[in-house]
Sequence to fold (161 residues):
Amino acid sequence: MSRHLTRIINVVTDLAVWIGGIFSVIMTLTVVYAVLARYLFKRPIGWSEEIAVYLMIWVVFLGAAYTLKENAHIGVDILISRLSAFPQRGLLIFHYLTGIVLMSILFLKGIDMVAFTLQMNSHSIAIDFPLVIPHLAVPVGAAILILQLIGKLLSLTAERP
Fold:
């Protein structure tokens, strides 16, 4: 059961990183287009910076869970690497549970932010872009991180100590 759930979580995480990759390509093309328009054609465009920033927000939040999946987050492991297997396991369980709590808070606050943005019908100043779209990156990214943390916890607890 936990292996099946972990596989589903990894598929969701992989899908998120693919979407983030597409957003990264779009962001790069947008910036290149803006630079070419400004310096080669002397016709600067005003919307490129905002779109690039909004895409970067999505890229970061969608990529965070994949980074966790691949154990690629920056960490100081000088202490944990010197411990035996049992204390290491206990610290990792604590680490994942703490992450779930923190990401749950981020998720709930992100939902509040999205609800407030919808209530206020907020739009960006320069291009009148609905701000709910970049704000959605917070709860979506936090939810995928929660899933990945649960998957890591399930994998860890399924192992024999």
About this structure: The chain is about 75% helix and 0% strand. The mean pLDDT is 92.
